[in-house]
């Protein structure tokens, strides 16, 4: 009998999950609390009617991953669209994807999942509420795919005097546009992607923008294009595996420094590969023009004169707004926390050294509960959408019994050794338990489910020239007509590839 799968959320991860379930003759029911698909990629203004928008996206956003790397594999983002997409194009692409694969009929909109709990027979009870009906309901499922995102619960810092400060204080989650900030003095806190995007955006309206960075040094800031290529087209399968990461990292550092001189006292000191770099281009112009001025960590917010004291003893006065761009907490309020954190033991052992501490095998399955999976819960990995898609294929392969997960203890061992490798290789600020490397992660999953592009098979089937593209070109997920037939250990993802388009795209970018 076909298995029933609950999918929580209809963002890009949830949509990929629905499609893979349908391809594998599973019965998906997707619960979506909003009245729309796309999750954070559906721009919403803050207004009287909508005081708590779901989306953390601001109007000026551009993807920081190129369209060739961000696309779903079997539905390429149109070749004539720009390399980096604005919000309107992202929304359009997501709508096109849902329409093409007829995903909407499988979504219950305006339906919030309240609780997910395991039954003695290992199935899951999902309790939910349809907003206009105001009545709680429940259904039983064989498997749950959690696709509810992790960029929604703001992480607020704590500073002395926050409650006394007379200016406005918001989190970047609520920042939407520079309108309303005309002639204001604004302090942005943080130096991740949100912080730098927002600081740059504000320079078009505010009289002065300041940026407070708690570590006193900037992170590595990588522009969207490096040496004339989209930054994520630069890594090929060959360079990923044959050039040691430290050398690759150094090469990128040198390319960045050549074009963007970091102010010497703010230059990052950790090697790029051990950190989580930020993607931005315009911020260097703002530093040079003085429209964004860097300050160290905040010491205290004062009650008088909208004054702020910093740890180096300097002060700013008349700060109208502080925008805390300090990231988000992982939050699954409908689940018992130990299901995804692994419980106290893991917390005690790794909690003080890690952020985003979760305990998931292959960033998907809690070892104790292999019939629930978390999709899209990854970081620093390049484009998330093809990862969510590959994860959905992996999970459906597991549900169908095409692959077998190891024992609980083996899964726990594998997670621990992953923590240890992150601990060894990353500086403290970048130690996140959901951090992964795009190529090696995708390769591990694709090998297990049987869609890894083995060299000898490619050469046999398509010849040496195509193999060269696979090895030395960008590692795009683009392919057309993915079958999802995971038993076929051969090249099912290559067999229907639209070679012409791939060759064209790769030659344009090589
Ligand atoms: C500002 C910003 C910019 C980003 N830029 C990029 C980029 O350029 N490239 C990239 O690859 N990634 C980027 N990301 C990462 C981004 O998170 C992913 O691209 C992707 O949107 C994740 O999709 P998701 O479906 O996993 O989560 P979401 O988009 O958050 O979707 C989750 C869905 O679950 C629903 N939901 C949540 N809880 C419940 C519940 N209890 N009941 C029912 N429904 C629920 C929500 O309503 C939502 O629709 C960015 C993130 C942020 C915050
Ligand atoms: N254009 C885009 O595509 C785009 C735009 C925005 C966001 N994103 C993505 O969305 C996700 C979230 O990004 P984000 O920038 O919102 O969050 P983030 O990546 O978690 O960055 C948070 C920043 O706040 C700082 N910070 C955290 N706690 C702090 C504290 N208590 N005091 C002072 N500073 C503190 C961090 O500094 P430390 O480094 O010192 O910890 C970091 O610089 C990321 O995956 C990002 O790639 C993408």
Automatic annotation (TrEMBL):
Known cofactor(s)? FAD
Q: Which GO terms describe its molecular function?
A: flavin adenine dinucleotide binding; N,N-dimethylaniline monooxygenase activity; NADP binding; trimethylamine monooxygenase activity
What lineage, starting at the top, does this entry show?
Answer: Eukaryota, Fungi, Fungi incertae sedis, Mucoromycota, Glomeromycotina
Q: Is-annotated flag, keyword Transmembrane?
A: yes
Question: What subcellular compartments does it reside in?
Answer: Endoplasmic reticulum membrane
Q: Which residues cross the membrane?
A: none
Question: What's a Pfam family in this record?
Answer: FMO-like
**E.C. designation(s):** 1.14.13.148
Its GO CC terms are: endoplasmic reticulum membrane
Its name, as the record gives it, is Flavin-containing monooxygenase 1
- InterPro entries associated with the record: FAD/NAD-bd_sf (IPR036188), Flavin_mOase (IPR000960), Flavin_mOase-like (IPR020946), FMO-like (IPR050346)
Record keywords: Endoplasmic reticulum, FAD, Flavoprotein, Membrane, Monooxygenase, NADP, Oxidoreductase, Transmembrane, Transmembrane helix
Question: What membrane topology does the UniProt entry give?
Answer: Single-pass membrane protein
Q: Does the keyword Transport apply?
A: no
Q: Which reaction does it catalyse?
A: hypotaurine + NADH + O2 + H(+) = taurine + NAD(+) + H2O; hypotaurine + NADPH + O2 + H(+) = taurine + NADP(+) + H2O; N,N-dimethylaniline + NADPH + O2 + H(+) = N,N-dimethylaniline N-oxide + NADP(+) + H2O; trimethylamine + NADPH + O2 = trimethylamine N-oxide + NADP(+) + H2O
What family classification does the UniProt entry report for this protein?
Belongs to the FMO family.
- Reported function: Broad spectrum monooxygenase that catalyzes the oxygenation of a wide variety of nitrogen- and sulfur-containing compounds including xenobiotics. Catalyzes the S-oxygenation of hypotaurine to produce taurine, an organic osmolyte involved in cell volume regulation as well as a variety of cytoprotective and developmental processes.
| The species this protein was found in | Cetraspora pellucida
């Amino acid at each position: 009998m076909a298995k029933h799968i609950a999918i929580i959320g209809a963002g890009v991860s949830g949509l990929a999950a629905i499609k893979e379930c349908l391809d594998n003759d599973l019965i998906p029911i997707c619960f979506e609390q909003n009245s729309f698909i796309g999750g954070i990629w559906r721009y919403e203004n803050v207004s009287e009617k909508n005081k708590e928008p779901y989306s953390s996206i601001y109007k000026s956003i551009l993807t920081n991953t190129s369209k060739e790397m961000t696309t779903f594999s079997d539905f390429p983002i149109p070749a004539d669209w720009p390399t980096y997409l604005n919000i309107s194009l992202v929304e359009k692409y997501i709508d096109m994807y849902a329409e093409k694969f007829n995903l909407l009929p499988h979504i219950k909109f305006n339906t919030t999942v309240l609780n997910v709990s395991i039954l003695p027979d290992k199935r899951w009870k999902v309790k939910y509420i349809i907003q206009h009906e105001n009545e709680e309901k429940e259904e039983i499922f064989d498997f749950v795919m959690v696709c509810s995102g992790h960029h929604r619960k703001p992480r607020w810092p704590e500073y002395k005097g926050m409650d006394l400060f007379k200016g406005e204080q918001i989190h970047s989650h609520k920042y939407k546009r520079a309108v309303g900030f005309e002639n204001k003095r604004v302090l942005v806190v943080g130096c991740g992607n949100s912080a730098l995007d927002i600081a740059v955006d504000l320079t078009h309206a505010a009289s002065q923008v300041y940026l407070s960075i708690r570590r006193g040094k900037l992170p590595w800031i990588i522009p969207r294009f490096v040496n004339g290529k989209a930054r994520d087209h630069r890594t090929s399968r060959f360079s990923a595996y044959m050039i040691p990461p430290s050398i690759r990292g150094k090469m990128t550092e040198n390319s960045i420094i050549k074009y963007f001189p970091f102010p010497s006292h703010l230059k990052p000191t950790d090697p790029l590969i051990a950190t989580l770099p930020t993607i931005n281009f315009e911020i260097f112009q703002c530093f040079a023009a003085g429209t964004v001025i860097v300050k160290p960590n905040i010491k205290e917010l004062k009650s008088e004169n909208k004054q702020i004291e910093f740890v180096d003893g300097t002060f700013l006065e008349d700060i109208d707004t502080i925008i805390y761009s300090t990231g988000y907490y992982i939050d699954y309020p409908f689940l018992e926390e130990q299901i995804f954190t692994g419980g106290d033991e893991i917390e005690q052992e790794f909690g003080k050294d890690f952020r985003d501490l979760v305990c998931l095998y292959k960033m998907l399955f809690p070892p104790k509960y292999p019939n629930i999976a978390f999709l899209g819960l990854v970081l620093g990995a390049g484009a998330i959408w093809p990862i969510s898609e590959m994860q959905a294929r992996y999970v459906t392969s597991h549900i169908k019994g095409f692959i077998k997960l190891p024992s609980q203890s083996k899964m726990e061992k594998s997670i621990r050794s992953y923590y240890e490798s992150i601990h060894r290789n990353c500086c403290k600020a970048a130690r996140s338990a959901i951090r992964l490397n795009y190529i090696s992660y995708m390769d591990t999953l694709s090998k297990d489910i049987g869609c890894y592009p083995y060299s000898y098979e490619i050469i046999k089937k398509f010849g040496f020239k195509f193999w060269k593209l696979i090895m030395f070109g960008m590692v795009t997920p683009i392919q057309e007509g993915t079958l999802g037939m995971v038993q076929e250990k051969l090249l099912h993802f290559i067999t229907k590839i639209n070679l012409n388009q791939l060759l064209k795209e790769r030659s344009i970018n090589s």
